[in-house]
Amino acid sequence: MHNPLGNFNYLIGCEKTRQAIAVDPLDGEAMVSLAREHNYDIKLIVNTHEHHDHIEGNPAVVEATGADIIAHKNAMASIPNVSRGVSAGDVIELGMLRLNVLFTPGHTPVHLCLLVNAEDNDGVPALFSGDTLFNACAGNCRNGGDVDQMYDSFVSQLQPLPDETLLYPGHDYMKNNLAFALTREPDNQDAKQWKQSVSSFDHDEMPVMTMGQERSYNPFLRLHNRDIITKLKEDFPHLGLSDRDVFKALRKLRDEW
Ligand SMILES: [Zn+2]
Predict the structure, then answer these.
(1) Distance 104 CA to ligand 1 centre (A)
(2) How would DSSP label each residue in the chain?
(3) Which of 128, 183, 199, 233 is spaced 20 to 30 Å from 135 by Cα?
(4) What φ, ψ does residue 13 adopt, rounded to 5°?
(5) How confident is the model at residue 2 (pLDDT cuts 50, 70, 90)?
(6) Would you say 58 and 28 are in contact if contact means Cβ atoms under 8 Å apart?
(7) Over the stretch 26-72, which tens digit does the pLDDT of each residue have?
């Protein structure tokens, strides 16, 4: 994953049928080579949303493999050549793979996440979160998004996920995000420790975190934290105390940071 935007391009393979799904290809040729190297045949592309850095590799993958493109049904107008539009509750199946579609608008109005249930992944659930949930942050809402929708997606779709859920975000912004988290909660020991332990890591060396770990340092999953709220009051003296108010204030500060 050597690209200037820190995009993660995921290849999810079925070991039995050797078929694979490419999630958010930016460098399509690299995805195709990776699949060939590991003896996988890319059959499907899933785009979490319509931003160029999540779809740019589609044509190269399609040309090399003939893969079908899947995206949210409301993204079909903004992503070229989508052959299947999906909605919340749909399941994308390939070989033994089963990816559950979550509808998570906020970063854009047509954003989806992919959830692999525990029983389909050796007992450990996994979330491909696109630009909705990052390590130590929420995605921004500045390019066609809506922060109220993002809050709703967090509360309804992400917060209920069990602690052991593995998180595969759309970009690596972890170091920067932990630095921001520490401006909001300077005494958070987990944030400090993780910032230290990943400080020398390259994008492709970053650890895969769990939802439980995210809950210990990600301010957007810590909306009841007293230190966070007290500090926000310094910047927003008239801040209401609802979770939504806290979430939106954090997102505003992250935008300006
Ligand atoms: Zn995006």
Answers:
(1) 13
(2) ---TT-B--EEEE-TTT-EEEEES-SSHHHHHHHHHHTT-EEEEEE-SS--HHHHTTHHHHHHHH-PEEEEEGGGTTTSTT--EEE-TT-EEEETTEEEEEEE-TTSSTT-EEEEE-GGGTTT--EEEEETTEETTEE----SS--HHHHHHHIIIIITTS-TT-EEEESB--HHHHHHHHHHH-TT-HHHHHHHHHTTT--GGGPPPPBHHHHHHH-GGG-TT-HHHHHHHHHH-TT---SHHHHHHHHHHHHHH-
(3) 233
(4) -115, 150
(5) low
(6) yes
(7) 999 999 999 999 999 999 999 999 999 999 999 999 999 999 999 99
Domain map (residue ranges) of the chain: 10-256
C-alpha of residue 17 to centroid of ligand 1, in Å: 31
Distance in Å, CA 16 to ligand 1 centroid = 32
**Class at the top of the CATH hierarchy for domain 10-256:** alpha beta
Query: Residues 62-103: pLDDT tens digits?
Result: 999 999 999 999 999 999 999 999 999 999 999 999 999 999
Which residues, chain by chain, have CB under 5 Å from ion ligand 1?
Answer: 51, 131
CA–centroid distance, 238 to ligand 1, in Å, is 31
pLDDT class of 6 with cuts at 50, 70, 90: confident
Ligand 1 center to residue 173 CA distance, Å? 13
Least confident span in 108-112, 132-136, 170-174:
170-174
